[in-house]
Amino acid sequence: MKKLRHSHRIIKQIERSIPEDSTLDLAFLKKESYFNFQIEDWYGDNIGQHKKLRKTIIRELLEIKNSWQQTLNNELNEPYYLAIWLYEPRILKSEVVCAIGDKITYYEDEAFLSSKKPNRIHTNQYGQFENQLNTLKWTRKVDIEPYYEWEMNWPVERYANPKEFYKDQRLYNRIRKMEFHVVEKDEEKIYFNPEGDIWIGK
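== DUF3841 domain-containing protein ==
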């Protein structure tokens, strides 16, 4: 029961703080040509996957997008990109993203790898938010995590626990063999591992 009470306390703290934390900063947007709000950036990755927290995240993503859209329509006076990036299953990485100028093309065409899976999001799994989610047009992309060659080659001495070293090496060997997506930068390889889906909702 302690874990459940702790989860509820975290959810209440997030619900209280999100309205202020997620306010669209137009000055930053105009200067940098993008602005985003990501759950994990603000609240960390250790808050768990409690069922109520998932509902809170979906509700807040929808409310943030609607709020930003109103502000952009009323105050920006130029074309913009605005979307929910809904990660499955890594929902804590979900975010609302806005861009203007040349960043629009980047987010529209270059930010993600296209998915070969069916482009049909199962909004019914989000219960009471199904109808709201269905008002958006969703595009499926691949959620990938980068693994840098230099960190994959760390010796066992860099680890506090040798078991963690061998665990990581099994993961790295699988990633190397799979070669899902590999980029070479500054004469070193970066391996990208698929972690799930990103649904782009506009």
